[in-house]
Fold:
Amino acid sequence: MKLDGPIPAAEIPGIVAEKRAAVEKLGLTWKGTRFDRYQQIIDDTFRGASANLVVPTNTRIDPLLRREAMNQSIQLAVSRPCWERFRTETSLVARLRMILKGSLSQEADEDKARNTLLELCAGAVMLNTDLQVTFPDGDVEDLIVQLPTVPGESPLPPLAVECKRPQSVSTIQGNIKKLRREQIPARISAGYAHVLPVIGVDRFAPLPHTLSPFDTLNNAVVRSQRVAADEFDSLRTRNKFKLDPATAPAIGILVSGAIAIPRPARPRFWLGQMLTYYYIADAADRRVEAIKRISRSQLDADRLP
Structure:
């Protein structure tokens, strides 16, 4: 099942069940994991839902836990297209096993299970823009992407992607500092010419559960992304950003999750993700030009209503 736009609420349990079958086919155990509990929550929420249901009616479920169940389950679902990009099935199974672990709700500042899932989501949304995406074996870079080049120009070197999930806006500066002092120099030392950080905003700027009647889906996604971009602007103004455009041409801002769209004629849920870019290098930089091309293709492909 392809997630490329709003769908009826009644279809959501089937999407989760389909991903469970794919995980178990790899020999992994789903039963007893946090995703098993998420599936129960989603089934209880939408069981018997009509095509017109938008706001869940089961009030016995904690709304914060329901949001976490929806967001994590949808992130697992949208990551599915990139699973075959792993160099070996063993590497994929190891990452999925890590993703299945963890607590029901976000507790620790550093959550390996959710961080690993973010890496797969970033890979999936980049794959959707026709980028070449691969996942390395081991625990060095999170993933590797090859930017497209204009015919007749020399190929651009591959980008090492580093994914981050800041706990709050106030912790973004610490994430940037770690990238600048540790992770980017390590990737450059390993032979990469460029690094592309990707910031997941689901912890500090999550999508609303339900779109207001006078709002648009595009505006809701942009508002979440803008929280991170505004903080980047603030850090640059205070001279605390300090990422070198020679090695980090841009930062990706990834919004993912589920949001209800209560339109009277056609109520639906949007399930998916959107990746935009905050540019550090000059607009004439070949890397920036390439990223802008894939950004436009993503906006066209996702067809936000």
Summary: Residues 72 and 257 are 7 Å apart (CA to CA). Strands lie at 132-134, 143-146, 159-164, 194-200, 250-261, 268-279. The two ends are 19 Å apart (CA to CA).
